[in-house]
Amino acid sequence: MVFSLLLLSMAVQAQTARQFTIDLTEDGKAQMVCFLPEQSSGKAIVGVPGGGYSVLSNTHEGTQASGWLNQQGIAYFVVNYRMPEGDRTKPVGDVEKGIRIVRDSAAVWGINPHDVGIMGFSAGGHLASVISTLSPYEVRPDFTILFYPVISMDEKVSHMWSCRNFLGEDQKNPEMVRKYSTMNAVQRHLTPPAIIIMSSDDNLVPPVTNGVEYYRAMRNAGNECALMLYPSGGHGYGFGPWFSYRDEMLSTLGKWLKARQVPKTDAIRVACIGNSITDGHGIDLAPQRGYPAQLQRMLGKDYWVKNFGVSARTMMNKGDYPYMNETAWKDALAFQPDIVVIKLGTNDSKPYNWKYGDTFKGDLEQMITTLRPDLLKPAKKKGKKSKVAQPAKPRIILCTPIPAFKSTWDISDEVIKNEIIPIQQEVAAKYGLEVIDLHTLYANDGDKMLDDGIHPDEKGVRRIAEIVAGTLKGN
């Protein structure tokens, strides 16, 4: 064992160009140990050790990973976070600050700020999943690695002390137990891709009610997720050489990391805002097969397309499910897009929503001027600026709804055609915006629809992607 650790230490020295420590709190109780590789690939990982939210296992679940990661050209940052002690914002805040520092220092440290992942172990896996699902866009990681993670905060099916130490008195509150059981917090398109590493014989953190539940939530959402479940190994092996499947694990993990598609730092950012048609309703693995995903493939590496679609949402704030109340809207603003493609209005046509139709124009204008505060008249600027910094003039493209070939869910094509589209065209003219008339361009594509007559099938979303791509490229 001593000889193995000596070889590991020599390997770290050979691959690590620089090691240093940053205080995350003024009193130094939270720190981040940084390992920068000799040759950077641009990728970075923030490590979150386990320890049941009572101690930190920050060697085999922390610094011991630095050698292998630096050898892959990956910058590595171990966060020695504070224990909750009745205040869960301490560990959450420490890790969020660590991610913020890594992204803010990306240019200096040779890191792509859009390729910063998180890697958590056991209770640290729970903390990593909290950051991945519940933290704001600015500090949410681009990918997630979870080793035998605590996911559920229900102590009956999870690690009792992790649950009690993280939630404190809120362990008695069913709403808080549900909120921080992070399989319930997974969101389609918004939760980053993940890989989960566990052993079937783990008798400390039950795999089926924790890691497998996170995988189930990710797969049901259509989000990219991989699961590595080994027959033995127990719990708490981390990067330790005593784990009998270590070589296989590192080989698979390495391939998964290399296979990730990473946007260029100067890529043109395209935000696709919309309802279920943008979201990809009825399409399996829609985050990988929906119209924004196909648009990404058509536009190529010079663009970075993100899907901010949410099913059933309305443009109107008085609708049953207003889009601007969603996390996706906040994320779309934080994304700071160069181009915004807005495709809303279909659900607004339902009778119980369209009775508020006189608010549609104002709410559409609110969305546009939040994205483009410069379009507000000077007299109206005071107190109405967006809280999130935006590019000076992102290009905004309004899409009319595609035809409703059936009146499923009381969606009315007559309302769309005769009332909603004229308002969209009026607003576009007022603010000098581009319009893609999908209602006309898609009129002959009724054979590319699901049985409900509302949602396009895979051929249909490709057709939409082709139309949008043609506009973006000026064709």
Structure commentary:
The protein is built from 18 helices and 13 strands. It is α/β, with parallel strands linked by helices and 475 residues long. The strands form 2 sheets. It has an 8-stranded mixed sheet, sandwiched between helices. Helix 3 crosses helix 5, helix 12 packs across helix 18 (458-472) and helix 15 packs across helix 16 (413-431). The longest helix has 19 residues, at 413-431. 36% of the residues lie in helices and 16% in strands. Helix 2 links the parallel strand 3 and strand 4. The radius of gyration is 24 Å and the shape is elongated.
Give the topology, please.
Blueprint: H1 2-15, E1 16-23, E2 31-37, E3 44-48, H2 66-71, E4 75-80, H3 89-104, H4 106-109, E5 116-121, H5 123-134, E6 143-147, H6 160-167, H7 174-180, E7 194-199, H8 211-221, E8 225-230, H9 246-259, E9 268-274, H10 276-279, H11 286-289, H12 291-299, E10 303-309, H13 327-334, E11 339-343, H14 351-354, H15 360-371, E12 395-399, H16 413-431, E13 434-436, H17 438-441, H18 458-472
Parallel strand pairs: 3-4, 3-5, 5-6, 6-7, 7-8, 9-10, 9-11, 11-12, 12-13
Antiparallel strand pairs: 1-2, 2-4
Helix pairs in contact: 3-5, 12-18, 15-16
Termini separation: 64 Å
Question: What characteristic shape results from the CA principal axes?
Answer: elongated
Strand content: 15-25%
List low-confidence stretches: 1-12, 379-384
Strand order of the largest sheet: 1-2-4-3-5-6-7-8
Kindly state the number of beta strands. 13
Broad structural category: alpha/beta
Mean pLDDT: 93
Evaluate the radius of gyration. Answer: 24 Å
| Number of helical elements | 18
Described by strand count, sense and barrel closure, the largest sheet is:
8 strands, mixed
Proportion of helical residues: 25-40%
